Amino acid sequence: MKRLLSLFVSLLITMGIWAQDEMLNTPLTLEAINPGTISVDILWAGAISYRLNDEDMQACTSAPIEVSSGDKVAIYGERNYLSRINCSADCYVYGNVMSLISSTDYSNLKTLSSGNGFESLFSFNSHIKNHPTKQLVLPATELSESCYDNMFAGCTGLTKAPELPATTLADFCYNSMFSGCSNLEEAPQLPATKLSRSCYQYMFQGCKKIAEAPELPATDLSKACYYGMFSGCISLTKAPELPATKLAGHCYGAMFMNCSALTEAPALPATSLATDCYIGMFQECSSLTKAPILPAKTLLQSCYCEMFSGCSKLNSITCLATNISANVCLMDWLRGVSETGTFVKAPKVNWPTNQSGIPQGWAVEDYSSTDITTTIVKKSTTTNTAFDLMGRKLTPNKKGFKIVEGRKYVVK
Prior knowledge:
Blueprint: H1 2-24, E1 28-32, E2 36-45, E3 48-52, E4 58-59, E5 65-67, E6 72-77, E7 80-87, E8 91-96, E9 128-130, E10 136-137, E11 316-319, E12 342-345, E13 363-366, E14 373-377, E15 386-387, E16 393-394, E17 400-404, E18 407-411
Parallel strand pairs: 8-9, 8-10, 11-12, 12-13, 14-18
Antiparallel strand pairs: 1-6, 1-8, 2-5, 2-7, 3-4, 3-6, 15-16, 15-17, 17-18
């Protein structure tokens, strides 16, 4: 039985690889579900042409392409930066998007160089849909600035995102890529460990049906890299681990703003902060009851500004800061939280009693150090139970921050 199961799994993997290879060799294609038109607006691109149902190649013009149900329009280009594809009726979209960069060598392209990209390619095209068996392929592993910026913004017909294998990112590369895709149910894996400025900014903003976030393994952050990434994802119940200990300006700003179903916040292990690093991070997360431990000693300008503002059920915070003098570092950070709660602080630190300090009506306790030391390792050697800073159990070898047998580990 086990052998049959193993063979079945191997067959599924082989079929998946075959299907992916088939789509690599298939040009970007729109297949009409209902009669209508397909138009290609060439705003800033090289020559773009199309083939209707394997007929002769034709140049794209301002005139829309008339299609009947079942018609297939394959689109080719020679360098693309800014063009838009619109449909007047529902269409499946699949194939290799790189056919817009090269009409002949698209199946081998893995790099998007400067001046090539797909910014706003399908933006607000509510008629494109996922094909039941054929995938849309974005094979680039090296990206260029703004290459996927707003590519599918407002595409409310999409339910599944294409795979995103890139490990070399660029500034604004995924900015608002799926913003407003209100029916998107599954986010793609994001394997990059080194980020670029605003690379994931607003990437899934308003994706109301995403319930699970992808893993975010990056430890090398950049300015505004995660800004607003999941804002408005009202079905998201758990945040991904955030292992980075070296932050950048605005890096986590508004990351989970308005995630009203979020009940569990990730550990935030960084002890050195950056300007605006957590600004508005959990703003209006109305189901959140407990904040992660905030271990940083010195606060910087706007670092916690509005961080938990509007978290109406929040009733537990531990903040170990000893220097809270930075400009607006705590402005409105606890505005609108629960009327009662417990605030644990570092001893001998004087806090104001208001929404920009400790909320009035909360009990205040001094933090008692457990003398936990920190070790950075590639792999934990113990099999004993591990915990995060909020006391949740983890597997010992899971990457990120954890406590095992009284020692603090950062497993990379």
